[in-house]
Design brief:
single chain, alpha+beta, globular, 6 helices, 305 residues, 2 domains, 9-stranded antiparallel sheet
Length: 305
């Protein structure tokens, strides 16, 4: 068997139509109702994306995206001659790479299959905005995906005895920056910003506070049920270790590993990937419906009056 393994990762959606929150149920129903031929969008000069298959069942919208360059002539290696050659594809066709995505509109969760040449998070955000504009759903739709981290992020963070640097990047929350009443969000809101980031370094030979300041702010943001964290990254050392450790929400993202046989049909691979995505959705739903404050941790007050 030619097995290929990759991860499906969980994100929280934050969407807006101009300044109003996005109606996720309405938008993704519209996506589902869009004819397949109307889903092909040119994202860059060298990248087109389309939705080849859609299925809406039990609250899960399963999508198989395909991406590629319609203007490219693939390069082939000829084993008989030992030479490479370019061969045009039939008119109206292009080499494509699939990426499977599951959306749970009621929970604002999206689960994305990671593939080396597939559709990435930033590209998918841009795709939905382009699809809405070109097909006249909305002229200014903005949709951003925030990393949904697991409890292991704070568990590894707690193991650090010395923190040299910590950084946080956040997207605008679903309604407005007022949703997250803290120093960084207040600054972003007063600036009329779409995203914000902060980086703090310790003095030479010293450590940042593990529960206050920037690290406390990171803890507050990753604990929020519908987090708006784009990425959080803390660099430090564990007790007795000389080598630094990087603790990030990307590393500790809620995810599941899946394997498929490359020789199986795309439909057969769909069923395997979507089944695992639905299982991950159950974990993500439990995470976003849990209390923000995790048990056994010091209370952190970073509100701005």
């Amino acid at each position: 068997m030619a097995l290929r393994g990759r991860y499906i990762r969980a994100y929280v959606m934050h969407g807006h139509l101009d300044s109003a929150p996005l109606d996720y149920a309405d938008f993704f129903q519209w996506v589902y109702d869009t004819p397949p031929r109307a889903t092909q969008m040119s994202i860059t000069r060298d990248l087109d994306i389309a939705i080849e298959r859609m299925s809406y069942r039990d609250g899960f919208l399963d999508l198989r995206f395909v991406s590629g360059n319609p203007r490219a002539y693939p390069l082939y290696y000829n084993e008989a001659t030992g030479q490479t050659e370019r061969s045009p594809v039939p008119p109206g066709t292009w080499a494509a790479e699939p990426t499977r995505v599951t959306v749970v509109p009621s929970e604002r969760i999206i689960l994305i299959e990671g593939r080396r040449n597939g559709v990435g998070v930033g590209t998918l955000e841009r795709y939905f905005a382009t699809l809405a504009r070109v097909n006249e759903y909305a002229t200014r739709l903005r949709l951003h995906f925030s990393t949904l981290s697991s409890a292991s992020f704070e568990e590894e963070l707690d193991q650090l005895t010395r923190i040299r640097v910590a950084g946080l990047e956040v997207n605008r929350p679903n309604t407005d920056w007022d949703d997250a009443n803290d120093v960084l969000s207040t600054l972003a809101g007063e600036s009329d910003g779409q995203s914000a980031q902060v980086l703090v370094s310790a003095a030479r030979g010293q450590s940042l506070n593990k529960f206050a300041g920037i690290v406390g702010l990171i803890r507050v943001h990753v604990r929020r049920a519908l987090t708006n964290v784009r990425n959080a990254r803390v660099i430090g050392r564990r007790s007795g270790e000389r080598k630094e450790t990087v603790v990030s929400t990307e590393k500790h993202q809620l995810r599941v590993h899946v394997e498929t046989d490359d020789r199986a049909t795309e439909f057969e691979q769909d069923e395997i990937v979507f089944d695992q995505a639905h299982n991950l959705a159950a974990l993500a739903t439990a995470r976003v419906n849990a209390d923000d404050e995790l048990p056994g941790e010091p209370a952190i007050d970073l509100e701005v009056s």
